[in-house]
Amino acid sequence: MIEIKFLGRFGQPVGKITRTIGKQLMAEGKHVQVFDGFGAFRPGNPTNSTIRISEKVIIERSEHETTPDVIVVLDNSLFAVSDVTKGLKPNGLVMALGVTAEVLGEKADNYRFIPFDSNVKGGADCEDELMRALKEHSVL
């Protein structure tokens, strides 16, 4: 099983992205769980959505205390205000658009970093580009 957590801000389509990717993966025969984590519903508040993907039935049901293999940061301002690597497995992967591994600071040695720059242009309907990038980097 692989677990991917998408981080963004309220008002960005974080949940929509994970649900769309989940539907595409289910159509490919994968087992999928998707769940959103929200704070206060205020524009700009940090939000996240997690997707679990497996070839087998997923027994895990908890949405709390997740340990993602991959973190996808959709809003780079989150690097400055939160620990985007919280819960990430050792040697886990961080992916983001428009930044380098330097944004991880001291943690750059503990995790792998892949920029999305060549794969994802961003925008409201970026699910297909994100899916392609995740596959190109052997995440899926």
Descriptive overview:
This protein is an alpha/beta fold. Helix content is 20%, strand content 26%. The chain has a 6-stranded mixed sheet with strand order 2-3-1-4-5-6, with helices on one face. α2 links the parallel β4 (70-73) and β5 (93-96). α1 (14-27) crosses α3 (127-136). The longest helix is centred in the first third of the chain and has 14 residues, at 14-27. The protein is globular, with a radius of gyration of 14 Å. The N and C termini lie close together (10 Å). The model has no long low-confidence stretch (mean pLDDT 86).
Which descriptors apply to this entry?
six-stranded mixed sheet; single chain; 3 helices; alpha/beta
Give the distance, in angstroms, between the N- and C-terminal Cα atoms.
Answer: 10 Å
Helix percentage: 10-25%
User: Average pLDDT, to the nearest integer?
Assistant: 86
- Please give the count of helices: 3
* Percent range for β-strand residues: 25-35%
Please list the strands of the largest sheet in the order they lie side by side: 2-3-1-4-5-6
Most strands sheet: 6 strands, mixed
Show unreliable segments.
Answer: none
- Please tell me how large the radius of gyration is: 14 Å
Q: Indicate the overall shape.
A: globular
Tell me the structural class.
Answer: alpha/beta
Work out the number of β strands: 6
Order of helices and strands: EHEEEHEEH
